[in-house]
Amino acid sequence: MSTTGLGAAAPAAAQETAPAGRGRSRTRIGDRLLKVYVWLIIAWLFLPIAVMIVFGFNDTKSKSNVTWQGFTLNWWGRLGEYPELTRAVVNSLQIAVLSTLITTVIGTLMGLALGRYRFRGQGATNLVMFAAIASPELVMGASLLSLFISSGVQTGFVTVVIAHVLFSLSFVAITVRARVIGLDRSIEEAARDLGASTWVTFWRVTFPMILPGVVAGALLAFALSIDDFVITQFTSGALQTFPLWIWGATRIGVPPQVNIIGTLIFAVGVAIAVFNTVLSRRRT
Amino acid sequence: MKRLAPYLLILPGGLWLAIFLVVPMVFMASVSTQEGDVVNGFVQTFNFSVYGDALAQYQTQFLRSAGYGLTATVISVVLAYPMAYWIAFKGGPRKSTYLLLVLLPFFVSFVLRTVSWKFLLADDGMLLAPLKSAGLVSGDFHVLQTTVAVIGGLVYNYLPFMILPIYVALERVDPRVVEAAQDLYAARREAFTKVVLPLSLPGVFAGVLMTFVPMTADYVNAGILGGPENTMIGNIIQTEYLVNNDYPTAAALSFTLMAAMLIGIFAYAKALGTENVLEAAAR
């Protein structure tokens, strides 16, 4: 019958008289199969990551790094062999840091406004934010490029930062808004009753309470920025970022250094995720 | 002052969204009705024929993108639902660990992950080479540059955006409601189809919205894993904008794509009841 385990049905009467009977055990088999399925999907999700990490150690002779030819640490020592690749990685990091800073500040302000106040235009703001999240990056990139072409703006570092702030802004605002809505306002009122000014109340009471939301939003903005390809390709002009460099290199063969840089970025991401999990566990 | 506070707070972000999201759409509309070329410049001529021409010329790619997007979305729902179900109801204290495992691969660049698939699926790559030397598949069998590779890549790259919303919806289902159904003599299957499934549909809705749109507009998967037979409309727009510099055609194609998607989203929302779209939008 059901191998999905979603509904290994047994007649209701049988279930009542014999709770440990056939229905139960069949359910357990279904659950076990589902668990195997979950792990298979996880393995599938990790497969290309494993390939990326392993092929950073591949002793490849040609430019195409496809078949396994033995273990080497050679490429780790020659990480900076392609100056344009190094430059692209540095560009990615600079863009991510700058756009994260801008996004976090203005996104937090938006989140505060949306979570705390009811005001005219709130619905319109929500709608535009929804549009920013739901519209395909291709259309966003294409329309931004149309704006820059029409107004004669040279595309490059600045236009990429503008675009990155644009697509991560709503995510930060929503993350902060969720935190603001969950706040206990009586703590702020207590601070004010004890004579704290609006400014002091914000920095000493409100801000520390919304900080986890702000940090989560900032991490999200950074991750979105460093990974972005589509909008970046449309708004970058001659500027290269890490994903753009890989895209360009696919035609001529991706060198193992790309795998190593990808591995390093992955390691940092995992470290941040683990750190974040441990931190949030300690807090609760 | 106090009444102005929300407006002052929203101002920088609101301006950013207005100037760089709303205004560019107007400029794209304008570009789409211009004539000219990169060397001699473009002139606004309100030439709408470019829409008809572009649509006629790239009809195949439009239809192909819709087909790929739909197929990949359906596969994603089928793959994601049981997974989200198991994590939500049987994940126990390790729920967040499973979710983290789903998300971790996405700390690696989108493009780089897709390139890794290209290596894996290459004719002499790790998956096909052993099969070929064992004689299980013929020597000229290949996966790269086929529809299967592109749709597989799409499903792979967007699956978490389907798993997460379905998980969130299932997680909100109170187990006591399921127990109540069973107390009222619903069999497990009935409790699922009549209680759990309907309660999780908003999550499926959000997941479809979050995957169908970007999948259909994607050009990275078709660009890296597909061949000339699998180009999607995104590839055409990208080439027209960035390689051929035919801005009017590219803008017209982008607009048509966006319009088609909006119509699709609203039709889909209507079919499911508008309540759901508001709920998904509010989230």
How does this model look, in words?
The complex is a heterodimer of chains A (284) and B (283). Chain A has a domain at 83-254: MetI-like fold, CATH 1.10.3720. Chain A contains twelve helices and no strands. Chain A is mainly α and 284 residues long. Chain B has 13 helices and two strands; from the N terminus they run αββαααααααααααα. Chain B has helices spanning 5-32, 49-57, 59-90, 95-103, 110-121, 128-133, 147-171, 175-183, 188-217, 220-225, 233-242, 247-272, 274-282; strands at 34-37, 41-44. In chain B, α12 (247-272) packs across α13. The longest helix of chain B is centred in the first third of the chain and has 32 residues, at 59-90. Chain B is globular and about 75 Å long. Residues 276-283 of chain B have low confidence and may be disordered. Chains A and B meet through α2, α4, α5, α6 and α7 of A and α1, α3, α4, α5 and α7 of B. Chain B: Residues 62-268 form the ABC transmembrane type-1 domain.
